[in-house]
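To the structural biology subgroup,

Please find below the input and predicted structure for MipA/OmpV family protein, which we are adding to the shared reference set this quarter. The sequence is reproduced verbatim from the submission form. If anyone notices a discrepancy with their own records, reply to this email rather than editing the shared folder directly, so we keep one authoritative version.
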Amino acid sequence: MNTHAHATRFSSRALLPLLSLLLATAGLLHTRTAQAEEPAASTDQAGQTGDMTRWGLGIGVSSDTRPYRDFDRKPEFMPLLAFENRWVRVAGPGVELKLLRHDAVALGMTLSYARDGYRPDDSPVLAGMARRSPSAWLGLRASLRSPVGQLTAEWSGDAASHSKGRKLKLGLDHRFAQGEFGLTPRVSATWLDAAFVQYYFGVEAGEARADRAAYTPGSAVNVDAGLRLDWRLDAQQTLFADLGVTRLGRSIRSSPLVDRSTVPGARLGWLYRF
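Predicted structure (tokenized):
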């Protein structure tokens, strides 16, 4: 099945050396941090970690609506891991290697896991479709602290070459603190290239049937808005809740596999920092 002939290909051969370099460098820097004898620096006023090493463990539950028709939504429980030092940051299913930080500007290399995709038995409308696999994404992330909030831009490509797709995400968030509570509204827009949209939302000619026409979409832009609430129970424990909604791009909304234009999501969690 050729789902990518119409799109510009993203070479996995170019990504694999970068992926190996990221993981090797992260391991080396982690080892250097553990062996360091210098006292750790305190966190600065912007919430950035200098030479301090911080890590935490917790548990979370998510309930994300999938865009596919008749898709059974089930809450998912997952362990949470947080780790950060001056070189590496781990949060959820992603790791960032910090390449540059100067005043309000930061640049990092990112590796993350996205639970996109489906199995044919996930929904009656997907019966007879080939499985679409989730993937790892490798990219670069730039951020800028400004008076209106944190501006971010992240470009990434499919490191596992399932979709051979690419993404570009632009976002803005700002945390408002009041005592032990924090409130962080956010908004973002994510461009998804045609290879990504075709793989996850297209229908190949061999997959078409009477109630599922062949479909070859183009690129799409998803728009997301959300709100995160965090409550610091004490010096080490934090509870958080995150609510969001995503407006799907036109070529995704028009897919015969999709029956909605917006996708809500909710996450709850508890984190203990050591």
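Summary notes: The radius of gyration is 20 Å. The chain has three helices and 13 strands.

Regards,
Lab coordination
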